[in-house]
Amino acid sequence: MNETKTAKIETGIIDCDFHQIVKNYEDLKHYIPRVWWDRLSAYEATLPLPIFKPIPLNRRDASPGNGLPPGSDPEYAKVDLLDRYKINKAILTGSLLTVSAHNNPDYAAAIASAFNDFTLDTWIPTDERWLASIVVATQDPILAAREIDRLGSHPKMVQVLLTDGSREPYGQRRFYPIYEAAVRNNLIIGIHGGGQGEGINPPTSAVGYPTTNFERHNILAIHQMSHLNSLVCEGVFETFPTLKVVFIEGGLAWVPHLMWRMDKNFRGMRSEVPWLRCKPSEYIVEHCRFTTQPIEEPENEELIQMLRMMRAERTVMFATDYPHWDNDTPLFVLNKLPGDLRQRIAYENAAEVYQLNPK
């Protein structure tokens, strides 16, 4: 973990992105129809990755030992993260980051459902600080909506998780069943990085496949930019006025740029979107939230300026991205912030969005 030796954070902390992992995909057999068992034994069980990544996704030092993968043992994670940094709540976002890139929508929906049940059985009972996401595959929004309704009333489920790798922008109407189900169950929509350029999804960049993972990693934010642009311009927040969307693991510096550009173009082209009653930036501040990791790291004064421009006192929430290789500790991120932003980003924004009890 990136870390600096500074004073401990005095405010409460909510971690909005913790990746729990199955020890082995065979563990999902208890939750998935027998017809899919052979696929669980295949490489990666969901999809092989199409680009070489010289740095493993997960930190080796986050492994609980005995050959187990990092993020696979809730008891170890409690000590290594929750207890160490006095984190009040951590939202589990899972490890099925390519589930919406699979060519078979029935298998994708089945493995997402199995993973959700695995999380509720294996992680949630171990500590009251864990909260969960309903992972869905977006290939078939009707199946996704059924999964949301199946688990949406569970008190520990706080959001529906989509990946930003997608064949189509999420503002388009075929995804409305997902939003209807989320609103019906009083859940947040989380859009997490993953699946870009894999399986049935388009290339990672707008001009094709990059040569290296370094090149790919530099431009991952374009996927979340595209979905945010679509959600606002297609009028999703007019159709679903109570809907909140959290953009997870997509960076932050692009947000002010997109807000300004959308507002400028709205003045000249608003006749194309007569359903929008507000400036695009107003929908973003009201309905959208963004997590810190992987935060851009300019000089601190420039970082604070960027956060002010995107109304971070309302729109930004803290995330570790544990146990990924580039994840951040509270000490690294929150101590860079002035006091008024620190408390909002560390705890209050997430507590308000996810409707959590006071600390």
Automatic annotation (TrEMBL):
GO terms for cellular component: cytoplasm. One of its GO terms (biological process) is secondary metabolic process. Transmembrane segments: none annotated. Residues 14-356 form the Amidohydrolase-related domain. Pfam families: Amidohydro_2 (PF04909). GO terms for molecular function: carboxy-lyase activity; hydrolase activity. Keywords: Hydrolase, Lyase. InterPro entries: ACMSD (IPR032465), Amidohydro-rel (IPR006680), Metal_Hydrolase (IPR032466). PANTHER family: 2-AMINO-3-CARBOXYLMUCONATE-6-SEMIALDEHYDE DECARBOXYLASE, ISO-OROTATE DECARBOXYLASE (EUROFUNG). This is Amidohydrolase.
